[in-house]
Design brief:
With 476 residues, the protein is of the alpha+beta class. The protein contains eleven helices and 19 strands. The longest helix has 21 residues.
Length: 476
């Protein structure tokens, strides 16, 4: 039978994995080309993944809340015309013997396919029969009772020599207390730092070389719990009576991880410039009504600032780069990320592609469209990837300036502060005097590994110069 493997597609330049949040089709269901099969989520966007072919879903390789790497096979679809009974797919996924029909052992290739299907069926049984242990020959931890472990977690446990008893003691932060990949990584880090609580049945190889002798390699006494994973990141937080414990959302956890990784990856440095935007404020006040009437779009300050940033990136192309190990990738396209706040308090960064090629009308349309669809959770995966530089408007919340965290793998991010009327010294040929001006701060965070202070400062100064030299007679 001809089958199609539906894989997790590339979701963005810096996205290597995604969380499977729901299945939209069940084994045995008929599927049409371009019909959504499952939903995934990353720290950037939620999205449906469609089928590329017509057929019948015969196998699901992952369960809800599992972490899937880009390129991994998530589902197997039997192409139309190959089977008259949709229920055949259920037998293939639910029975180890379903593929072992007389015709399935004619060739070595079919024998291998039968063995692979059998192993996948056993894995599927572990998902649904959470109260039973699987009959896998390898001595790997399994789900049991109220402890469910995804294939990824079980594989990590097996590779790290974590036995069933030790795995059962690891606290989970996932849905219904499930142990997630992040929980495993945190525990392994703590385990390595604290001297390793080892499984009685699977002692680590490293224990044989420890100078402390066999006693140190022994498993902890029954009832002795390992130090909590939180110890790797700080002291445990005490919870007092009356405190409310609010679990972080899935997107919130992913964003937190992404931000922490950025701070540990890039050497963040900031430069600040105060800008006089009086000319822009007066010009916008004069043209915004006619602009909205003619174009059907509101003219906010954001597209004006984005235009200035695009011009500055064109002047300083070494700010439009990414770091790849010991290589610097100089980007040809100028794709501006625009940080947008979501109603739930999280953040998403849609991307304006080829921003340097847009006029002000085109920029205004792009900004308004992406901001609206971001708030409505209607962005497509392609619209949040391949950004080369990011702009965030902290002034919309009243902040005067900020120190934003770089959106990896980019090397810079610009924060726009609130526009305020302030007294300022105005220089004229006839002397200086005090006047009221509209001013704001530009806060530029950049990666000091590859961007020195001169480049970082000159770049943000160029943005300021473009804004202060705004043509008040400009047509739009």
């Amino acid at each position: 039978m001809s089958k199609f493997e539906l894989k997790l597609p590339q979701m963005g330049e810096s996205v290597a994995e995604a969380t499977l949040t729901s299945w939209l089709k069940e084994v045995g269901d008929a599927i049409e080309a371009d019909e959504a099969v499952f939903e995934i989520a990353t720290d950037k966007v939620d999205s449906e993944v469609p089928s590329e072919v017509d057929g019948v879903l015969v196998e699901k390789r992952f369960e809800v809340d599992d972490v899937v790497k880009v390129g991994q096979v998530v589902a197997v679809i039997e192409l139309n015309g190959e089977s008259d009974q949709p229920d055949a797919g259920r037998e293939a996924a639910g029975s180890p013997d379903a593929e072992a029909s007389p015709g399935s052992s004619d060739t070595p290739g079919k024998q291998a396919a039968a063995k692979e299907s059998s192993g996948q069926a056993e894995a599927a049984a572990a998902f649904v029969e959470q109260g039973e242990k699987t009959a896998r020959p390898a001595p790997a931890p399994v789900s049991h009772g109220d402890r469910f472990y995804s294939p990824l977690v079980r594989n990590m446990a097996r590779e790290e020599g974590i036995g069933q008893e030790e795995l059962d003691r690891i606290p989970g932060t996932g849905k219904e207390g499930r142990v997630t990949k992040s929980d495993m990584l945190a525990y392994l880090e703590s385990r390595g730092q604290e001297g390793a609580v080892r499984s009685e049945s699977e002692p680590r190889e490293a224990a044989a070389t420890e100078a402390a002798g066999p006693a140190m390699a022994a498993a902890p006494e029954k009832g002795q719990a390992p130090k909590p994973a939180a110890a790797a990141t700080g002291s445990p937080v005490s919870i007092s009576e009356g405190d409310e414990v609010i679990p972080m959302s899935r997107m919130g956890k992913l964003i937190a991880k992404h931000m922490a990784e950025s701070v540990s990856t890039s050497a963040h440095v900031q430069s600040f410039v105060e800008v006089d935007v009086t000319r822009i404020v007066e010009w916008r006040d004069r043209v915004k009504a006619d602009f909205e009437k003619r174009e059907g779009e509101k003219l906010t300050f954001t597209p004006i600032f984005m235009e200035a940033v695009a011009k500055a990136l064109k002047k300083f192309p070494m700010m439009n780069i990414s770091v790849d190990g010991d290589r610097v990738i100089k980007k040809k396209q100028i794709n501006l990320g625009m940080a947008a706040a979501l109603p739930d308090g999280n953040l998403i960064v849609p991307v304006i592609r080829n921003a340097d090629q847009l006029n002000l009308v085109g920029m205004a349309r792009a900004v308004n469209d992406l901001a609206t669809r971001a708030r409505n959770n209607a962005l497509k995966p392609d619209e949040v990837k391949e950004g080369t530089y990011t702009v965030t408007n902290v002034g919309s919340f009243g902040s005067v300036f900020g120190t934003p965290i770089i959106n990896q793998p980019q090397v810079g991010i610009l924060a726009l502060g609130a526009i305020r009327k302030v007294p300022a010294v105005i220089e004229t040929p006839s002397g200086d005097f005090i006047g009221i001006r509209s001013k704001m701060f530009l806060s530029h965070s950049y990666d000091h590994r590859v961007v020195n202070g001169a480049l970082g400062g000159l770049f943000v100064k160029a943005v300021a110069d473009y804004l202060e030299a705004w043509d008040t007679e400009r047509d739009v």
